Amino acid sequence: MEKRRILPIQSGLNFRELGGYPTFDGRTIKWQKLLRSGYLSVLTKADQGYLVNYGLRYDVDLRSDYEINRNPDPLMPPVQRIRASVYPFSQHQGLGVFSWLKRLVHKSAPAPSVLSDPYELMVLDEHAQGAFKKLFQVLLKNDQPNQSVLFHCAAGKDRTGTAAFLVLSALGVSQETIEEDYLLSNQVLFGTQAPIATPSTNNAALDRMNEARNVSLRSLRLAKQAIETSYGSMTAYFHQAMNLSDQDIGTLKQLYTEKSAKK
């Protein structure tokens, strides 16, 4: 199939390929292996068929149980659906989150608003880490050529953007490239200034984030800073928080990267 960064899905939201991005060791991410998107619940049969023919085999849903139950992903045999809810956070809800973040992450800086920048919690909270660990385990299972894992939330920009940051970091993609991919959501979702139309969750916090006009590099960088402050490095985070061994990371690189084509 034609290599396209933005997939030609007519009924879904923010469907994108992660193939083609370069890595530090001179390789590139394989095409038809890693996909990211917003909600799938409104996909037409034609778009479902496109994704299955494209090689989609694993659908990792990062939304809350409430969102999933209200707007479930369609059944698309032979695609396996996996729940990996990032929300709700396990231990750091409400006003207590401010003192927790200030103490643990930014000792000299004021803590961010939970509603505007939950990214630190997405990478540090135990429940959220469990969701991303589940995603990495699915990635390790996806060992057949031209078969894809898709991970998504509602708008495909915040929870999905954090997941993409973690996955691409593990594969050796530069932070600059990761940020370019992250910001692509602004162009895809809001380039025409059309309002985003995601199914309402009836949850003010989630709806507010899903309907935000754009994503901000400040949020993504807060997540990276939180990891480096709390764990020392991204590698230590993958070992300790994601339970990935060096062998696991090597397997991920073998499955999802390839030698760059000679110029």
Feature tags:
single chain, Protein-Tyrosine Phosphatase, Chain A, 263 residues, alpha/beta, five-stranded mixed sheet, globular, 11 helices, 10% strand, 7 strands, two-stranded antiparallel ribbon
SSE map:
Elements: E1 16-17, E2 27-29, E3 34-37, H1 45-54, E4 56-61, H2 65-70, E5 80-83, H3 96-104, H4 119-124, H5 126-141, E6 148-152, H6 159-170, H7 175-190, H8 204-210, H9 217-231, H10 234-240, H11 246-256, E7 257-259
Parallel strand pairs: 3-6, 4-5, 4-6
Antiparallel strand pairs: 1-3, 2-7
Describe this structure in words.
With 263 residues, the protein is of the alpha/beta class. The chain has one domain (16-256): Protein-Tyrosine Phosphatase, Chain A (Alpha-Beta Complex), CATH 3.90.190.10. The chain has eleven helices and seven strands. It has helices at 45-54, 65-70, 96-104, 119-124, 126-141, 159-170, 175-190, 204-210, 217-231, 234-240, 246-256, and strands at 16-17, 27-29, 34-37, 56-61, 80-83, 148-152, 257-259. Strand 4, helix 2 (65-70) and strand 5 form a beta-alpha-beta unit. Helix 9 (217-231) crosses helix 10 (234-240). It is globular. The relative contact order is 0.18. Residues 94-116 and 192-201 have low confidence and may be disordered.
Amount of helix: 40-55%
The overall number of domains is 1
Query: H/E order of the elements?
Result: EEEHEHEHHHEHHHHHHE
The chain-level structural class is alpha/beta
Contiguous low-pLDDT stretches (5 residues minimum) are 94-116, 192-201
Major β-sheet strand ordering: 1-3-6-4-5
What is the approximate shape?
Answer: globular
Question: Could you name the CATH homologous superfamily?
Answer: Protein tyrosine phosphatase superfamily
The overall strand count is 7
Average of the residue pLDDT scores: 86
